[in-house]
Amino acid sequence: MIKNTVICFGEMLWDILPGKALPGGAVMNVAYHLHKLGNPVALISRVGNDERGRQLINLLSGYGLPVDQIQIDNEHQTGIVYADMSDPHAVKYDIVHPVAWDFIEYPSSLETDNKYLVFGSLSTRDQVSRTTLKRLLAHVGTRVLDINLRAPHYTQEYIEWLLQHCDILKLNDDELSLIQSWYGVADSAEEGLKYLANRFSIPLIVLTRGADGAMLLQEKQLYKVDGVSVKVADTIGSGDAFLAGFLHAHRLKKAPIECLQIANSLGALVATYSGGCPDYDISVLPL
């Protein structure tokens, strides 16, 4: 594994939409977009020994992504998610459990000089992948939590543990409101971000707000950008693209507001396509 690689740990799967299936999974989407932007990426995941798994590996190879850290599971099927597209602006998901990515084992070879680890709450829903994640968190520099709350696949206990073990947190309005309700915090985005930063000692928090743009709290300084007006095909993977754009800019040590602008532009661009891993021209982005 290349040094200074961004490690993406967790789910890779097929989104089952009306009439078609598209490759997806939050961390796989993030890995795809990071790679497309030119960042060295390693995806640690697991697929079944089945046709869907082979298709995913072939797709990733075709994208140019390394597949050497993707494990093959002989007992569990490749992950699938049934997407309810009745409202393309707010897609709902039925995430099948258990599947192969619930049983990710610790990789046999892992460079210790890796600056970023991207992970989400779905990887804690089963003990095997959860244990692997805990080991990985001890061997990286910057721990990036894309919280990605999907009921009923999380508990407050595990979410609190994840919040205690991240350096960068990305979440959306609905997720922030839910977490605020756990602690009786005023339903204000700014107050919610400040509360999370203080309670869990999180240095950097990014809040995505869909058409209303995004906010960033870093070192007690709040930054905001407006939304980008686009014709939405669906919102699958747009938040993952946002995070990839943000991390790309963050790795280049760009100013906080620039990180937000790049992230916002990529998230909006991906929303104009169907699925989480579309092909697009990066030259249209403000990189």
Automatic annotation (TrEMBL):
InterPro entries, sorted: Carboh/pur_kinase_PfkB_CS, PfkB_Carbo_kinase, PfkB_dom, Ribokinase-like
A single MF term (Gene Ontology): kinase activity
Annotated Pfam families: PfkB (PF00294)
Residue stretches making up the Carbohydrate kinase PfkB domain: 23-277
Entry keywords, A to Z: Kinase, Transferase
Keyword RNA-binding: no
Gene3D superfamilies to which the protein is assigned, alphabetical: 3.40.1190.20
Recorded family membership: Belongs to the carbohydrate kinase PfkB family.
Name this protein carries in UniProt: Carbohydrate kinase
Organism, scientific name: Chitinophaga silvatica
Highest classification ranks of the organism: Bacteria, Pseudomonadati, Bacteroidota, Chitinophagia, Chitinophagales
